[in-house]
Write a structure and sequence with these properties.
By secondary structure, the protein is of the alpha/beta class. It has 17 helices and eleven strands. Helix 1 (about 15-25) links the parallel strand 1 (about 10) and strand 2 (about 30-35). Helix 1 (about 15-25) packs across helix 7 and helix 6 (about 140-145) packs across helix 8 (about 200-205). The longest helix has 22 residues, at about 165-190. The structure holds coenzyme A. Coenzyme A binds near residues 35, 37, 95 and 97.
């Protein structure tokens, strides 16, 4: 049995943020019925295509374990079918531009009338306020939520992260909101509205930077590279690769960095493991030198310290550095490329990286469920073709017979 077996999700999501959420619910066992526009479907089916006329990896990697139904929710007969689907589902999830479902005639009030038990979950770019009507994509959210302002090097411009904290990050938040609302419904019998704004999701993930904004009013941020030689302005600055947790850390070069853009390792020079680190890099002298042998003494010379660490790491590969530093309890992590991650046997063994077969594109790699439940295994099934399950869902969920399905097709509702 899977954790969310018996939960049915009417999935009106598209692009990335919403599909991330409903894919998680599907992996946990929910029956996720993806409603797509007839003939078009989710725009990502056709975006960044690597093989002509085949669903893109963008789509296939965000829509595993779902069923696809085509339904024109703007036509009268389509609306009637949509209303019946709402009556049969536990959750409605969507991430259209603001007001799109209202324009179709499905306000929250109307949806509650149709099914008082339903949970209506949405991702929007912004919450109520000056930008509530704006359309938003990943990098807009990273900029508006504090991610870009606090990422990059002090002397450089704001930078967006490679991790999709705006889209996938908000999808994760929404999934938690949905299961929490389902849990509450167990007690109250009522559904509720669940809303996540991408700006809010990014800001939540940037929590420590708001922490630092407030610390700044009480003096310089001593773990930032601006201390003690640079200056601080009015806002939390960009900190390069400095560790946000109060332990000095930096990315240093390893053997081969001249030609390999990922020959780097992150090293944390934590006080608790400093003796071993100093010895291994050939600086046993630091252990007795009052200029070096306390965290306070080292603080103004962090860059010099990492220069010395880097002289040593450059003599070894990032994996050799790991082998030496881990037994010394020095926290460190290699900069792994997407190629290395896709080939990593331990990630294949846990199902975090999976190979999935697809009838039109053949086998492809995907990221499986990163959340492991001991009693709810997540098998990763391929994404559906556009409208692959239309007849099946109309028959099974709405109890329609062949004649009624033929009529829906004649009405161009599906
Ligand atoms: C992502 C986003 C910018 C895309 O905008 P877009 O491509 O213009 O798409 P929209 O969401 O506006 O939807 C387009 C239209 O298709 C319609 N549509 C969607 N599914 C339909 C269906 N099955 N049948 C009929 N019409 C449908 C919508 O109702 C909407 O029509 P309207 O503009 O007349 O109201 C926008 O959806 C958005 O801001 N979403 C919220 C934030 C978000 O999730 N962003 C991250 C995306 S990863």
């Amino acid at each position: 049995m899977k954790a969310l077996e018996g939960v049915r999700v009417l999935d009106m999501t598209h692009v990335q943020s919403g599909p991330t959420c409903t894919q998680l619910l599907a992996w946990f066992g929910a029956d996720v019925i993806k409603v797509e526009r007839p003939g078009k479907g989710d725009a990502t089916r056709g975006q960044l295509r690597d093989i002509p006329d085949v669903d893109s990896l963008y789509f296939t990697m965000l829509n595993h374990n779902k069923r696809s139904v085509t339904l024109n929710t703007k036509s009268e007969s389509g609306k009637a079918l949509f209303t019946r689907l709402l009556q049969s589902c536990d959750v409605l999830a969507e991430n259209f531009a603001p007001g799109a479902l209202d324009r179709m005639g499905f306000s929250w009030e109307r949806i509650q009338e149709i099914n008082p038990r339903i949970i209506y979950a949405s991702v929007k770019g912004f919450g109520p306020g000056p930008y509530e009507d704006c359309k938003v994509y990943e990098n807009v959210a990273q900029c508006a939520g504090g991610g870009a302002s606090t990422t990059g090097f002090p002397e450089g411009p704001p930078v967006v992260a490679g991790a999709q904290i705006g889209d996938s990050g908000t999808g994760l938040h929404l999934a938690l909101g949905i299961v929490t609302a389902l849990f509450q419904r167990e007690k109250t019998g009522r559904g509720q509205r669940v809303e996540c704004a991408m700006q809010d999701g990014v800001l939540n993930l940037c929590r420590v930077k708001l922490r630092d904004q407030q610390r700044l009013t009480h003096g310089p941020l001593k773990e930032y590279p601006q201390y003690p030689h640079g200056t601080f302005g009015a806002a939390t600055p960009r900190a390069g690769n400095a560790s946000g947790g109060g332990q000095p850390g930096w990315i240093v070069k390893c053997k081969g960095w001249e030609t390999d853009p990922d020959a780097y390792i992150y090293v944390i020079a934590q006080a608790a493991a400093f003796d071993g680190l100093a010895r291994v890099i050939g600086h046993e002298d630091w252990l007795t030198d009052p200029e070096w042998n306390t965290p306070e003494a080292r603080l103004p010379k962090i860059d010099e310290m990492f220069d010395e660490i880097e002289k040593w790491t450059q003599t070894l590969t990032k994996f050799e550095v790991m082998e030496v530093l881990n037994p010394l309890n020095v926290p460190c992590g290699p900069v792994l490329s997407m190629k290395e991650l896709s080939e990593e046997p331990s990630l294949r063994a846990t199902g975090t990286v999976v190979e999935v077969d697809h009838p039109e594109r053949g086998p492809y790699l995907s990221v499986g469920n990163p959340i492991k439940l001991s009693d709810s295994p997540a098998d990763v099934r391929r994404s559906p073709l556009l409208g692959e399950h239309t007849d099946e869902v109309l028959r099974e969920v709405l109890g329609m017979d062949d004649a009624a399905i033929a009529q829906a097709r004649a009405d161009r509702a599906v």
